[in-house]
Amino acid sequence: MDSSNLVGISEIADLAKVTRQVVSNWRQRYDHFPRPVKTLQSGPVWDREVVEAWVKNFKGEATHVLSFINLKGGVGKTTTAVGVAEILAQEERKHVLVVDLDPQTNASVTLISEERWAEMDKAGQTVAQLFADRLNPNDPPKFEIEKSIARGVSTINDGIARLDLLPSSIRLIDIQDRIPMIALSGNFTVNPLDILKHALQPVIDRYDYVIIDCPPSLGTVTKNGLRISTGYVIPTIPDILSTWGIYQIVDNVQRFADDIDRPIPSLGIVATKVQGNNLHRRVMDDLGAGRLGRFGEAGALPQPPLFANSIPQTVNVARGADVDADIRTFKGKYGTAYESIRGLAKEIKTLCETRKP
Ligand SMILES: Nc1ncnc2c1ncn2[C@@H]1O[C@H](COP(=O)(O)OP(=O)(O)OP(=O)(O)O)[C@@H](O)[C@H]1O
Ligand SMILES: [Mg+2]
Predict the structure, then answer these.
(1) Which atom number of ligand 1 is nearest to the Cα of residue 315?
(2) Does residue 354 surpass a pLDDT of 80?
(3) Scanning 14, 133, 179, 352, which has the fewest C-beta atoms within 10 Å of its C-beta?
(4) CATH code: domain of residue 38
(5) Domain around 333
């Protein structure tokens, strides 16, 4: 075990923001306080992650699970989700897990190399394997959550310590249509909407944020993400075609939330790939005033608010995987969009952390 991941009582007190005495009391009082991994001359030491998860759970700090959704493709869902996750982890020092639910695997190959992704895919360490296991209940399951989480991912600084990834796979295309049938087949009575929830249960307490990059649809895979979401974000280009389906998303998510009897509030709409033209300005005005399309009609659902930060169209983001781009720094990777992605991450953090549970 890496010794930097071991913590003593003083460090536990620091990370829990309590005194050493309080930590000693916890140890005595609670049987479920983690056991030390070994005792050094200086005293007992614990695995940092195990203790952090315990403290977080003990203090009742729920993990914020946010889905990034739009029915329209190519509107910047993945770019926004990954950028926000990177900033929350690197600059806000949060523990963040990115879950890639899109068979296009864009978030996965932005955060880990294609070689690494190919190895994980081959070894069944992706969400596609998670669902495939449930489709073939008579075969021994191959998916293991611990092995399927890539640690310290991102091109920024050659890896961000607190940022992890559960990758996707193109294999998901072949199986996604069969997932709704899972409950009807095999020996297990597993709700096909609860598959991701069950898989993440052992690890979710480690994270302050889980950011879910959804495919451009509201199928069973996206619903697996919504099932565990404490909120969602709608990235959209401020034009007619990209904003057209937003009413449908809000309406559908609301109905799904009613079905599962759990609120899934929209944190807001974020304008992406913004250019200073008249059309973009007009749609931004409508969004800012809360009267986008059908939202403006009598008796309609309220429009989610527009985030103050919008993401400009920049060459840095567009050139993406260009080998010449210095994608190891935020400025190199996002260019002038960096400040706005950073502002958005802060808005999201404030909304999550000040909202009543
Ligand atoms: N702010 C931006 N400036 C310039 N290009 C951008 C910006 N944001 C995203 N792009 C580019 O637009 C394309 C689509 O972006 P992205 O993959 O983030 O969208 P998406 O909504 O996740 O798409 P999909 O529906 O296919 O998953 C990509 O080529 C990306 O590099
Ligand atoms: Mg995407």
Answers:
(1) 4
(2) yes
(3) 14
(4) 1.10.1660.10
(5) 64-354
